[in-house]
Amino acid sequence: MKTYYVYILKCKDGTYYTGMTNNLERRLNEHNSGLNKECYTFNRRPVELVFHESFMDVNQAIFFEKKIKKWSKAKKEAIINGNWNELKTLSECQNNSHSKNFNQDNE
User: pLDDT tens for residues 35-78?
Assistant: First the structure.
């Protein structure tokens, strides 16, 4: 059975790239060698692997990759730093009109 990896790379410009592969070492080398001029990381090399999670089910890996790609930089940095509990706080709506934050001053 194959293992699939969802990974986050930190690019030299400070941005993050999220991807999925079944060979983490090979894929990191591909990003750093610049094989694909159309790839997001091509002009942002070198890149550094800062996070990876393994999956035995390709569908779970695809789901997790798509989820992370939509996350803010702060949420990505929370999992990079192993602060999984911080994700809950970062996921909460901070809008003043949200019922949790609503007070009489908003009326």
Answer: 899 999 999 999 999 999 999 999 999 999 999 999 999 999 99
Please check whether residues 83 and 59 belong to one and the same domain: no
Return the sign of the alpha-carbon dihedral for residues 38, 39, 44, 47.
negative
Q: Return phi, psi of residue 48, to 5°.
A: -130, 130
CA 33/CA 53 separation, integer angstroms: 23
Indicate yes or no: pTM above 0.70.
yes
Three-state SS across 14-31? CCEEEEEECCHHHHHHHH
CATH of the domain at 4: 3.40.1440.10
